[in-house]
Each structure stands twice: as structure tokens, then as C-alpha cells.
Amino acid sequence: MRTTIRIAVFLAAAIAAFPPVADAEVLGITSPTNTFNLTAKADAISTSDGDSMWMWGYANDPGRMQYPGPTIIVNAGATVRINLRNELPVPVSMVFPGQPNVRASGGAQGLLTREVPAAPCTPTPTVTCTVLYNFVAPQPGTYIYYSGTRPDLEVEMGLVGTLIVRPVAGPNRAYEDASTAFDQEYLFLVSEADFDIHQQVSFGNLQVDTSKRHPVDWFINGRNFPDTLTDANVGHLPTQPYNCAPVIHPNEKILIRWVSAGSDLHPFHTHGQNHLLIARDGRLLKTPSGTAAELAISDYTTTVVPGETADAIWGPWTGAKLGWDVYGTNDVKPHTCNGIANAPSAGFDPTTHEYCPDHTKAIPVSLPTQSDLTFGVLGGGMWGGTPFLGVPGDVPPINPAAQTQLNNVGGISFMWHSHAERELTTNNIFIGGMAAMALIVPVP
What we know:
Elements: H1 2-15, E1 35-46, E2 52-60, E3 72-75, E4 79-86, E5 103-106, E6 108-109, E7 114-115, E8 131-136, E9 141-146, H2 151-154, E10 160-166, E11 184-193, H3 195-202, E12 217-220, E13 247-248, E14 254-260, E15 266-270, E16 275-280, E17 283-284, E18 297-299, E19 301-304, E20 309-314, E21 393-395, E22 405-407, E23 412-418, E24 425-426, E25 429-430, E26 435-440
């Protein structure tokens, strides 16, 4: 029974996934004056095992708490001002690793920075109920922010988020150098949670022994798989507004912005091909005199350690040199391939980006019958089990009561996930946890 329910939940979430490909940018908050008003609040999130978890988190006033906190997006050189209030029963704060000369005023002095007192706050001549954090963001990159007040508990409870500083060169570069250009970008804020700690806090225990911490939930952007695929800002996940469903066309590049927002190591694996790690902690992997990421690392798994960020480029994906036509033979999908022999993209069709030397070659294995395949991994007219791009057809029913769906798009999907197998569960229920699906869809 549990397996049946799990599959039904998985497929239902998948149907809503994957909007059409556009110039995807990370969702977040911006301000013409680079001034942001946040409040630390409490609320609940949903987990993909059908349960819920009590959380603390930052809210973009006057909205609800969200996990993770609002992704703050500014341009390099901006003077950033963040006003923080607090509705939690503990003091809270914000720290900004990688940002020099952060000035804080108001509140009360804490160990690492100025803190907003616990609610209800009563101002005094020396203590205020709001802290202003003020800094200039000098360098582009991906950065983390979190509470510097007892982070062992408050980060566990959800007081963490992302700061993205965009380069002067424009929104489709991670850094100033042209080698960091991308077509689509996606945030992968990875974290974990101990359900028992959250339950104790919900019952009023604010002195939890975090040394006994034992995570059982793993998240990307505050969601477990398959909720990672569900549309952003979906109504049934009001406190988890950020999804993680990468979609690109052949020959496009994805910028992966990893943020390690927990206390554990997370080895993250991208299927389909290697990714190129170009930066860590908002700094290009380059030589002292270089400008491009000369020291970039090509790998299939990158481990992001607690408090660290990493930027990687995945793509371009073309299916080149697989030895078979990714669009299918002419009996499957009649099509042409017009490669230009001496062009920079030699051998590729300029529109579909098909690798012409493999044109019309049959896939060199016998494909299984429909009864031997698992369908519904992406649903919503996206993928029907075919290994070919852009081949429409009837998808078998996704559950005994469902009708046949039309596979209108015919994409190829790759699972991106933690390489720690236990992290592919949600409170011991497989499949869940720290996973997403990347989808290649054909050029219209």
C-alpha cells in the first residue's frame, strides 16, 4: 500500500513539472534601491512522505516564512541594505560569508554580529527591535547567508538563504568573463533536517541537544523529490516557493548554483555528461593572473561542504558521438541533418544541433517492450520512455485509473541527485530526498 501511494504522489507531482523552455533565471527578490525587509518567522513545510515539518525561516515582508529564505539578487557594486525583524522566541541574526566590511546596527550585540532580540521585543535606549545590515557587494558570484546566532540550531531550523551577485557583464554570465556564459540557470540549495529536532522545537524545547542530530530528510531548495519538480510558487507548497527542474534545448548550457546550507557533506551527481566546476565561494577557479576559469574541474560528482557555494556549467548537451541518431531513424522520425563541414560547430545541424555523422544511425541495442519500461517519470506531455528527442506518441497510463496521455514533447531526461544513496529517501521512504530531473527538449 505504501509503495502504491508513493508512486501516485510521485506521478501527480511530475505532471505539473517543467514549464516551456525560456531564458530561465533563478527566482528571487530584487529591489531598485537594493533594500530588503526580512522577518524571521515560524511556519510548516510539506515533505514528500506526506508529512509536515515545523520550521523557522526568513520571510520577505509581509509574506510568510519560506524555506529556504528569499534568494536576494543584486548587481556587483550595489550597496545592499537588509532590515531584519524577528517573530521567533529566540534571538536571530544574519551573516554574509564572502562579503567584506558588513556593517550592522541596531538590535543587541551577539557573538558574531548584531542580533534581533527574541520576540516579543521591547525596545530600550540601548536595544532596538530591528537590525540593519549594510554592505557593498563587490564581486559577482553565488553566496550563502544564514543566522549567526546559535547556527547549530537556527540553520537546522531553516534560517538560511542565497545571495546572488550578478556581474556587470549581464544576467547571462556567472562572472565577468565570457567563459562563464550560460543559457539557463538553476539554484541547488542542498540541505538536510532531523525531524526529531524540529518536533522538539515545535513543542517549545529551545535547548535541543544538536550533538545527537540524525537527519532523515534531504532537500533541494527546501523540497524533497518529487516535489522538486513541481512548479515554483505552487499553491500547495506556500512556504517552499522554489522548485528545481532544469530544462534546456540541445546545445544550451546550464549554470548550476550549488549552495550547501546544512551541516553534512553532499556529493551531487549530474547524469548525461560531466559538469565543469568553474568557481567556489564566489571566486573563479583561475590562476592569479588569469581572468577565465583556467583551473576549472570537469567532473561527474561535486561535493559541496557545509557553508560553501559552487558554480558549475553543464552542457552544451548535443548527443554527439553516441553512435546513434538521438532524433531517431527516418522510420521513427523523418528529419534532415545539414552539418556545415568547416564551421566552428562542424558536423552539427545549425537548428536542431544534431550531430550529422550519426544521422539515421539506429540505436545499437534492442529496445525493451512497453511492459518492461517504467513510465511517468516526467509526465505532462514531456517524456514517454523513448530514447529519441521529439518523438511524440501515446504514453501508457500513469496509474490504473488514468487515461492515456499524449507525449507531445518527447524529451530526454537525466536524473540529478545526491550520490549518497541514503539521501535519496524522505524519512526512509524511497524514492525521495535530494534529487531532481533535468530535461532536454527538442528545438521547436
